[in-house]
Amino acid sequence: MDHDVNGRLLDRPAIEPPESFVAQANVSDPDVRAAFEREWPDCWAQAGRLLDWERPYDETLAGGAAEPPFEWFAGGRLNASHNCVDRHVDERKNQVAVQWEGRLGETRTYTYLDLYREVNEFAAALRSLGVAAGDVVTLYMPMIPELPVAMLACARLGAVHNVVFAGFSAEALANRMGRAESRFLVTCDGYYRRGAATNQKNKADNARIGLDHEVEATVVVSRLGDETHLGDRQYGYVDLLAAHEGDRVDPVARRAADPLFLIYTSGTTGAPKAVTHTTGGYLAHVAWTARAVLDIKPEDTYWCSADIGWITGHSYVVYGPLALGTTTVLYEGTADHPERDRVWQIIERNAVDVFYTAPTAIRAFMKWGSEYPARNDLSSLRLLGTVGEPINPRVWEWYYTHIGGERCPVVDTWWQTETGAIMVSTLPGADAMKPGSAGMALPGIGARVVDGDGRPTPPGEPGYLVLDRPWPGMPTALATGEGWADSHPWRSADGWQYVAGDEATVDEDGYVTVLGRVDDVINVAGRRFSTMELESSIVEVAGVAEAAVIGGDDRSTGRAVYAYVSPERDCPGDDDLRARIEARVREAIGPMATPEAVVFTPELPKTRSGKIMRRLLEDIANDEPLGDTSALRNPEILGEIESVVREEP
Ligand code: 6R9
């Protein structure tokens, strides 16, 4: 089969969603985009209506659409904890809200009533420790139910949570607490990683030492069950709950534009940046997309496998599904522990209806083989989703066939920490799917691909992906126009637009194909290669598990392709594998793209969500000092890679 430059299959027709899916879909009206256009921005009242407002808003969007400031749902007041918990208790108090699957095979079930009680008791505890509306509370916890409970308890008080990925170092935690001047911390004693216990409390204690300001209170959840020494101003989570048993806290009504949380970006292109999301606009956008794109119904069991420390976990493990009153699965473990069919067992055991994951996970599933999903019953699945990176058409097809049984639509959802919620995707009940292409801008969303002068590029021509209209889930810095002036300009061409930093193409039907971060495109002697295209060809070589390519300095061509390859467990990284990789790239892409160097490494440096940190690999290749490494899940691998590169002749 032929592929275009983006690796998309040319002779494969678009795939229509199955009729059985369309018949039950939350959104199936093919006219929905046009209807949103006709009523923009008031069309977003559809999202506002999914929420309970303590005080109704006066205007869907105040301030006009031309330039900041933008204020969504102006005049409205609401509380996110009320929206995600209280209002469901009357209707379905005994329905499961959070289904937890622990690393050691344990499970815990929280009904909406259980969640209501614990959120209230913990909110009362936080209040007694001095937490008030507007305070920043840092949450440094793995995937345990106490994390969403703590998020919702903060939201109940109008406090702003600052979740820091549990795998980050003490230094990364100190940096993120310091910048936010956060005086409250909720953490745990430790947790299991691949069967071994890590000491989280120790990291938290070290972070506190590195801070310039005092921490007023630290709450420690017992995950390992061992006796933990609690120092001054440190409190045990269960002791606090016991002290506040039966307490209720009235949800604090917040203005729609008030901050709900802050989170740091993935840092794939530079130092991680703080992003603040709003209470009303964010929650409305997340709820609407969870309903229209992920097709969530209250009676579903829904599983997004993302870590809560990533924006995807905030929006689609916690806020979106709970706002819609569904059952959300929370999984603490990894996909291959203790066995490579762990994910499929969880889907079978819980009869999961909708599964949302990342291409990096799907690539791993594909490598492990289809026998693992095949030996589990996946017939409960109705819809599949992916997020985080471009998904290669071959990987898409595998997901569609082996996991979805060709019966579940696949939504390839493009968005960012900065956008808060999904921006570009097919609507699974209304749109045809094109493997490898995310799809059209969602109804009411202005996404375009433009050249360096801001002019729309012709179909198929790469350009910059920009958002040229405000959206409800936009972060505070963009809404007020007071932040990010340098790194994220709203640049004026024929209006304001937010430059997302991704390179993309758009086709005749308006389907957007994301090629990768602008910085990740490699220019060799005037020819542009997308990292995805190159990496896909390398991963096709037998024995290769994963690959990352970057542009390194080269004396003759200016820029050259450097490949970092992690071989499969039983395959040696030797000259034979190197020769096969070079041959494959020459054949698939062309001699110009043949890697200047192939470096073997047991792992690639990755973020909490599995994104490859190419900029650090580039620093190593070019013998430059390493940039910010604080957002790495596995920083220890860098030293190993550096030593291999230095040994190269
Ligand atoms: C949600 C999230 C954002 C960057 C984004 C883009 C890449 C995300 C994608 C995708 C192609 C998709 N990205 N979804 N690329 N297709 N469906 O990932 O947020 O961690 O901030 O990353 O991820 O490059 O700009 P974040």
Automatic annotation (TrEMBL):
GO molecular function per UniProt: 3-hydroxypropionyl-CoA synthetase activity; acetate-CoA ligase activity; ATP binding
The question of whether Transferase is a record keyword is answered with no
Could you list this entry's UniProt keywords, alphabetically sorted: ATP-binding, Ligase, Nucleotide-binding
Record-annotated AMP-binding enzyme C-terminal domain positions: 533-611
Q: Which PROSITE patterns match?
A: AMP_BINDING
Q: What is its EC number?
A: 6.2.1.1
Cite the InterPro entries for this sequence: Ac_CoA_lig, ACAS_N, AMP-bd_C, AMP-bd_C_sf, AMP-binding_CS, AMP-dep_synth/lig_dom, ANL_N_sf
Which is one Pfam family of this protein?
Answer: ACAS_N
Domain AMP-dependent synthetase/ligase as annotated: residue spans: 86-470
Family, as annotated: Belongs to the ATP-dependent AMP-binding enzyme family.
NCBIfam families of this UniProt entry?
Answer: Ac_CoA_lig_AcsA, PRK00174.1
Name it.
Acetate--CoA ligase
* Source organism per UniProt: Halomarina halobia
